[in-house]
Design brief:
alpha+beta, about 25% strand, five-stranded mixed barrel, single chain
C-alpha cells in the first residue's frame, strides 16, 4: 500500500509540475501541489526505505519528468498550443521614396496638437509641428524624423499655447 502511495504521489506530482511548466505558466496551485506531492513521496521513501531508495525515487521522478516533457513537447497538443507563424513585414521608408524635402508645401488635415494628419501632393502623412495648428493651415516641411514629417506653419493661423 505504501509503495502504491509513493508511486501515485510521484506520478501525480510530476504531472502537476509538468503542467505548471508547460500548460499553465506561472507559480500557482498546480506547481505548489505538484511540488508538495513530490516532496511527500520523497519523504515517505526516505523514511520507510532508506537513502538508496530515496535517491532512486528522485532519479525516477527526474527521468519521468524528462520522458513526459519529451512526449508533451512532441505531441499534437504542443503543435496546437505554439504559434508557428512568422512575421515578415517591415516598416516602409515611404518618406525617402516620395521625395519629401524641406520646403515642400503641405496642408493640415486635422487640428495639429503637435501631431496630426497632413496632406502633401495628394497623399496623407502623419505630421508633427512645434506649435498648435488648426485644420486647413498651410504648412512647410522642415524634414522627416522617425517616419513623421516635421512641419511648421507658414500662415499666422498658429495657436500658441
Amino acid at each position: 500500500m505504501i509503495i502504491a502511495t509513493i508511486i501515485l504521489a510521484l506520478l501525480i506530482g510530476v504531472s502537476l509540475l509538468l503542467m505548471e511548466v508547460v500548460v499553465i505558466p506561472g507559480f500557482g496551485i498546480c506547481g505548489i501541489g505538484g511540488g508538495l506531492l513530490t516532496l511527500f513521496a520523497y519523504y515517505i521513501t526516505f523514511s520507510r526505505y532508506g537513502t538508496s531508495w530515496g535517491i532512486a525515487a528522485i532519479a525516477i521522478s527526474i527521468a519521468l519528468f524528462a520522458i513526459l516533457w519529451y512526449l508533451l513537447v512532441n505531441s499534437r497538443f504542443s503543435k496546437v498550443m505554439h504559434l508557428n507563424t512568422t512575421i515578415d513585414s517591415h516598416v516602409s521608408d515611404e518618406y525617402d521614396n516620395n521625395q519629401i524635402t524641406p520646403g515642400t508645401h503641405a496642408i493640415a488635415l486635422t487640428r495639429m496638437n503637435l501631431v496630426g494628419r497632413i496632406k502633401i501632393d495628394g497623399k496623407e502623412y502623419e505630421g508633427r509641428c512645434i506649435t498648435f495648428v488648426e485644420a486647413g493651415t498651410q504648412l512647410e516641411v522642415v524634414g522627416t524624423e522617425d517616419n513623421v514629417v516635421v512641419v511648421k506653419a507658414t500662415q499666422s493661423d498658429c495657436i500658441d499655447k
